[in-house]
Structures are given as structure tokens and as C-alpha cells.
Amino acid sequence: MSQRRRPYVSMQIMSRWGDVVGLNVSMGDFVNEYPHIFEVFKHPVRRNVCCCITSKMLELIEEEKVVVKEREVDNIRMLKKLFMMSKEGTLHLHALRLVRRELGLPEDFRESIFRKYVDDFKLVDMEVVALVKKDENLAFTKVEEWRENEYREKWLSEFEIKYAFPINYPTGFKIESGFKEKMMNWQRMSYVKPYEKEGTRSRSKTGIERFEKRVVGILHEFLSLTVEKMMPVERFVHFRKDLGIEVNMRELLLKHPGIFYISTKGNCQNVFLREAYTKCCLTEQNALYIVRRKMLDLMLLHRRNTKEIKRNKVIEEEKPILETEKVLTSRRDGDWVIPFLERSDD
Fold this sequence. Notes:
This is PORR domain-containing protein. Residues 3-303 form the PORR domain. By secondary structure, the chain is α+β, with helices and mostly antiparallel strands. Among the domains are: 1-54 and 313-346, no CATH class; 137-285, no CATH class. The chain has 17 helices and eleven strands. The chain has a three-stranded antiparallel sheet with strand order 1-3-2. The longest helix is centred in the middle third of the chain and has 20 residues, at 205-224. It is globular, with a radius of gyration of 25 Å. The termini are close together.
């Protein structure tokens, strides 16, 4: 890192990004609120106020990249399971791009995974990828693991547990008359599981209920494959056709508060797999979740412990900037900046 040009951007340029990222405060106030994430300094040559990412945050970003790379085998397994849940064994790339972060995929997953593992995946066209061969060893859902444990540890009958889901109602949930019986019948009701191919769909009331339970199973399995067992609700919509789950997603999720939890904080609705969390913390934590949690903890510090933050003003670190400025002294119109997200792979 010491040999790389440090990415920075002028605050004047950053002030124009407020509306783009949906800030309801000024960019200056936002940056100053998170001194453990952003470092504000005066440019040694231009003398304008600039901003860069702190060294601590950069370390975590690099750590995240390493962890994502190490997840390659797990990511292949996870992707195979997603493809196996689809109707035709295909998924659209644009849908996967939207949930890349939730699935823990690298930015270049199209090249680093799909083009690399040609024995497993095939690019049908520019936007569609197909699974070459189904792996029956992976056709086992997370909820089926739970059922096996319940059957073995609690001695429950197969009739009670074969099609059941773990139910954890929130504190204060009001149980109305007849609700328990209705839920018991739903738990016992059979359905076509996520890795099984759906036959002719019945349009009867029972047929619709079985189909909805299949969708619940697919959503449950999808969430269990994500890094944090959560995902923005609207991103499920992009998988509706491929996965054959063309229903009102939000309405279905709200019908099952014991399985799913929808957070409405901010401008985005996120759905969480309720069983995966204990007291707001992920029960089974993975390496990627842990490094992202470190990033969140850094952000939650706000302006606390700022005495530990000191900008290194060693003149050698500024040489690349000074040399660049000398070359560009003729280009003084407007603000010249090094791209904030510049790739510098030396």
C-alpha cells in the first residue's frame, strides 16, 4: 500500500453526491460524523479540503477481499444450490449482481467463477447462466437439517416434523382464537420441496396453499445461503421468474412472522431469517460476516475514540501526489481528483 497512490476526492466534488446516495444531511456533516471511516485533510498543493478512507477501514476492505477469495469453493456450492432451485436450471446475471454482496460473491464473479468453472456452469448468452449438471448431494435444504435434529433430539413423530418449519414468534405476538390449530395444519401440510421439480399446479384452495408453502421453502433456503441470512425484499422480485415464485413477495413474508422478520428501518425493507438470529446477532457466524461486523462497529463509533486517529504526514507518502500535481499544473480548470474507487493493482 505504501507504493500505491492513495485514493482521495475533494469535498467540493463529494458535496454533489448527497442526492445520489440519498443523504438527508450535508456531505460535510456526514463525513465528519464518521471519522473512523473518512479522513478529511487539506491537499498539500491545491490547498483544498479533501477526503480519503482511513487506513483502518482500508485494512478491513482488503481483509474482506481476502475472505471473499477464500470462499470460492463455498460460493460454487452455494451457486449450484441456487441453480438447482430454479425452474430451468438457469439464472439471470443481473439478478445475481443485485445480490452479489448478500451472497458473498466477488465483484468479477462472472469471470472468476462462471468462466473459470466451465464444467459446472455454462453461459447461455450475455445475461443467462445455466448449471451444467445437477449435484444430488446438494439437494438437501437447511430446514431439512433442522427437521432431522428435531426428530433425533426431541423424539417428534415423522408426521409432525416431516414438512414443518422452525417457528419463533416475536415478543408480544398476539395469538388469536383458532390460530394454533391453523398453524398446526399448515406445519403438517405436504409441499413440493425447493430442490424437487414442481408438477402440475392445482388451482384449488389446498393447491394454492401448498404452492405458497413451497415458495416459503424456497425463500427460507435462499436466505439460509446468504452471508447474513438476510436480503432486501425488493431483490427477491428479480428471481421470481427463474425460481417460479411469482407471488406477492411482501404479502407472503408478512403471513409468516414466525419464520421471517421484515425490518423497515431506513428506506429499504430487509427480510431476515428469524431462526438464524439470537438477540439481534447471527447465531452461526462466518468469516465474511465477522469482517463486515468489524466495519459496522467502526462506523458505530461515530466520533468516539477519535484521539486514536492521527493522519500520517510523512512527506514520502505525499510524493506521488506532488509529482502528479506537477504534471497536471496546466490542467487547473475545475477540480482534478484521483478517482475515489480507483483500482491500483501494482
